[in-house]
């Protein structure tokens, strides 16, 4: 994807996986810019677009937070609200017509016109869910959904029961309908695994099978899959977002096989990908959302950047005004930082005047069979200053080439009882750090990480990783 460039739109704060969609444009208007903000409440865990089952236009927004599902129209008005009877928070959601499918950590529930119609209790963790969308392709089977489960299986739920499983070589983390509707059979589903593999399965009644599975360009977890025609080929393309910040674009041939078209790296965990005509009437933009909240588009370099702005003549003037406002705000922020540091140094923490910041840490701890080691990823919204690692085990640190950090280890002695004590001091503006460690087979114990961002006064959050084992 060398001919694609990135254009940043906004930074909205930390985002959860699958909480960004592009709303279809209103064809009656050349430009339809609608901005609204929902009322504060519980954090949104999942988002889906819906509308009448008979219509291809899906412009109704459905959000799941805690045990509540709300529907919001494109003007920000709430038109639907449903309190579920789930015993655990809803993590993933799928919407079609009057059907709302919700999954918690181990529970699956389908609501038909707000009525609890189907439910299933899974013995494994559920990472994602998708439903087959065309009843005509089901035959005599009941409403059918696909669960990506933590025991390396895709579980096919028909009605209230498990119809069958499709066993995979690694844990599926993301599922999506092939070509957006299940392909020509309407029964095909794409899946992405925690080890960076992408596959396609056919799920007819009575039993399913894997059509193909390929290794993507990295072993990072696949966090999102989107099917949309971006390259202009005959069939919709497959766009894959990954935890290490890689965005991969695959084209599909007549035999339904995927071929790598290009990649783009943004160095931040991808939480959402969608497509639409955002900055152009004629060409499709790839809209990307990251964990740290960056919302940006990938568009072809040959496109004029302001080709469709309704007020292009005043664009440069407005940009200069915005730059001036940003510079003024930056000066005020720097002045307040200096004043706060002086107060902190003068009065000290004992005086009770120091405010300790709370920051969200996104972490992932997985074993990589490719490297024969455990990968531990730490990501913050604000830049990381340093990370201190303490381990009860004599683990070994491995070099990660893309890390912009300096590693220092302290040998075990009378003053240091820890078998491993090390620090990672990061360079400027590093928000994501990847650690790779090896352990002896059969060992188990606790690893403590002290994550300290670049804030004043210095403070850290402690992350504890339990049950490390190198068996298998």
Automatic annotation (TrEMBL):
Q: Which UniProt keywords apply?
A: Coiled coil
The BBS7 beta-propeller domain, residue ranges: 18-299
The Gene Ontology biological process terms listed for this entry are: cilium assembly; intracellular protein localization
Which GO cellular component terms, listed alphabetically, does the Swiss-Prot or TrEMBL entry include?
A: axoneme; BBSome; ciliary basal body; membrane; neuron projection
Location of the BBS7 GAE domain:
359-463
Q: Which InterPro entries match?
A: BBS7_GAE_dom, Beta-prop_BBS7
- Coiled-coil-forming residues are 312-346
One Pfam family linked to the record:
Beta-prop_BBS7
> Keyword Coiled coil: yes or no?
yes
Classification via PANTHER family? BARDET-BIEDL SYNDROME 7 PROTEIN
Write the protein's name.
Answer: Bardet-Biedl syndrome 7 protein homolog
Organism expressing this protein natively? Caenorhabditis tropicalis
């Amino acid at each position: 994807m060398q001919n694609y460039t990135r254009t940043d739109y906004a930074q909205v704060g930390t985002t959860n996986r699958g909480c960004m969609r592009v709303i279809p444009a209103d064809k009656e208007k050349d430009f339809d810019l609608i901005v609204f903000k929902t009322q504060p409440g519980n954090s949104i865990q999942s988002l889906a677009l819906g509308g009448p089952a008979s219509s291809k236009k899906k412009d109704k927004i459905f959000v799941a937070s805690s045990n509540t599902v709300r529907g919001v129209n494109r003007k920000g008005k709430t038109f639907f609200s449903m309190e579920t009877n789930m015993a655990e928070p809803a993590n993933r959601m799928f919407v079609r017509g009057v059907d709302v499918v919700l999954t918690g950590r181990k529970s699956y529930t389908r609501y038909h016109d707000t009525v609890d119609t189907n439910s299933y209790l899974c013995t494994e963790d559920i990472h994602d869910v998708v439903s087959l969308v065309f009843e005509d392709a089901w035959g005599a089977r009941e409403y059918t959904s696909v669960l990506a489960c933590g025991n390396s299986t895709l579980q096919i739920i028909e009605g209230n029961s498990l119809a069958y499983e499709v066993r995979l070589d690694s844990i599926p983390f993301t599922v999506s309908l092939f070509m957006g509707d299940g392909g020509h059979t309407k029964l095909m589903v794409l899946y992405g695994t925690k080890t960076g593999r992408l596959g396609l399965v056919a799920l007819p009644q009575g039993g399913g099978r894997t059509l193909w599975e390929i290794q993507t360009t990295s072993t990072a977890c696949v966090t999102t899959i989107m099917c949309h025609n971006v390259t202009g080929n005959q069939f919709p393309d497959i766009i894959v977002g990954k935890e290490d910040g890689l965005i991969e674009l695959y084209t599909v041939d007549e035999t339904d096989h995927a071929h790598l078209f290009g990649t783009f790296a943004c160095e931040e965990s991808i939480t959402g990908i969608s497509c639409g005509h955002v900055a152009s009437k004629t060409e499709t933009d790839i809209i990307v959302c990251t964990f740290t909240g960056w919302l940006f588009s990938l568009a072809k370099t040959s496109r004029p950047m302001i080709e469709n702005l309704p007020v292009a003549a005043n664009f440069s003037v407005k940009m200069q005004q915005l730059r001036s406002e940003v510079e003024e705000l930056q000066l005020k922020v720097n002045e307040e930082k200096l004043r706060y540091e002086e107060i902190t140094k003068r009065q000290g923490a004992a005086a009770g005047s120091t405010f300790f910041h709370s920051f969200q840490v996104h972490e992932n701890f997985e074993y990589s069979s490719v490297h024969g080691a455990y990968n531990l990823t730490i990501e913050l919204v604000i830049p990381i200053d340093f990370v201190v690692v303490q381990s009860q085990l004599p683990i070994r640190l491995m070099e990660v080439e893309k890390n912009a950090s300096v590693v220092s280890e302290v040998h075990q002695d009378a003053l240091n009882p820890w078998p491993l004590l090390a620090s990672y001091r990061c360079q400027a503006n590093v928000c994501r750090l990847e650690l790779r460690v090896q352990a002896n087979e059969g060992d188990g114990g606790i690893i403590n990480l002290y994550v300290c961002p670049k804030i004043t006064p210095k403070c850290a959050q402690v992350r504890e990783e339990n049950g490390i084992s190198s068996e298998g």
